[in-house]
Amino acid sequence: MRPVCFPLMMLTLSLASAAPPLSAQRPCSAEANRHFDFWEGRWMVRAATGALAGHNTLSLVLGECVLQEHYTTPSGYEGKSLNIFDQTRGVWHQTWVDNQGALLQLEGGYQDDRMVMQGETVDAAGIVTLNRITWSRIDGGRDRVRQLWELSADGGTVWTTSFDGTYIRLETGADWDLLIQGGTVMNGTGRPGFSADVAIVDDRIVRVSRTPLDPERASRTIDATGLVVAPGFIDLHAHLDPLLRLPGAESHVRQGVTTALGGPDGGGPWPFAEHLELAASVGVGMNVGFMVGHNTVRREVMGLENRAPTASELERMKGMVAQAMDEGAWAISTGLKYL
Fold first, then answer.
1. What fold does the segment set 178-229 form as a domain?
2. pTM given for the model
3. Please, where are the H alpha helices in 75-212?
4. What are the domain boundaries of the chain?
5. pLDDT per residue over 20-69, tens digit each?
6. Alpha-carbon distance 326 to 273, whole Å?
7. Spatial contact of 296 and 268, defined as CB atoms under 8 Å apart
8. For the packed helices 272-282 and 311-327, what is the interaxial angle rounded to 10 degrees?
9. CATH of domain 8-169
10. What is the separation, in whole angstroms, between the first and last Cα of the chain?
11. What is the tens place of the pLDDT at every residue in 232-287?
């Protein structure tokens, strides 16, 4: 998550300098230059709680001398780094910059099968904080990496954890699983729509860009020119009785509805848990929830008799509603005119 970036002036001076003498050994091929290669690849990053933190892409560039990082989160945070082994001093260097204006420079090295780098930051009040980040392969494998970022306010005596994340390798050469190009994005805020590309990894939107994105970076693309790209609509009053016969829910999905709440007007399913289990086993084409129906419960207990329930009947109905709530009902619905 901590990216590195070479200052532009350093790059310019390097390009303007005289060419180095030819060497039989390819530049950056020494073992020390390769110590951070285990971090290369496309990763899903999860926090210590298991929650998705973001996605990170690490690529070897500039003759495989530099490890370039690009980190994004679902909230829109984004940062990049360049990582390189300084052969003159024998240390690894990282410079991280992000879309919040932060700059973090770290240095360190590879020891005990871990990459450890640290550096200072100074806030507006002049308070110095020491940052230490450790990258290590979990169980010595290639598909999981731990990144531990620690902070110290006393020069390194006491450390607190700022971030403890697990990198899980994504086995694909593309940066995004899906790229939706050229659509008019309506984001649900009420603001006017705007033309943008939308990049998706797994089930998460990782980037919304008003500047066209490179389709070569996506496994799949959809041309949405002339179409609207919007969050899925929610239908809070849906008669889902045919859902198990028509599980694709195309009458909803083709209109942009991706979530529906069934069981309105007092007519929810019963037995409740059995209905949910059947829907799950069939597999339905949209997100669904159900209410427990007052009318359904009443019919189960006392049919359609036009009278007040007895005390025992009322207790039985209350128990059925409580049972349905425990089994996953979102609410209770009523529709007295349908009794």
1. Urease, subunit C; domain 1 (2.30.40)
2. 0.49
3. none
4. 8-169, 178-229, 233-338
5. 343 445 688 899 999 999 998 889 999 999 999 999 999 888 888 999 99
6. 9
7. yes
8. 30
9. 2.40.128.20
10. 60
11. 999 999 999 999 999 999 999 999 999 999 999 999 899 999 999 999 999 999 99
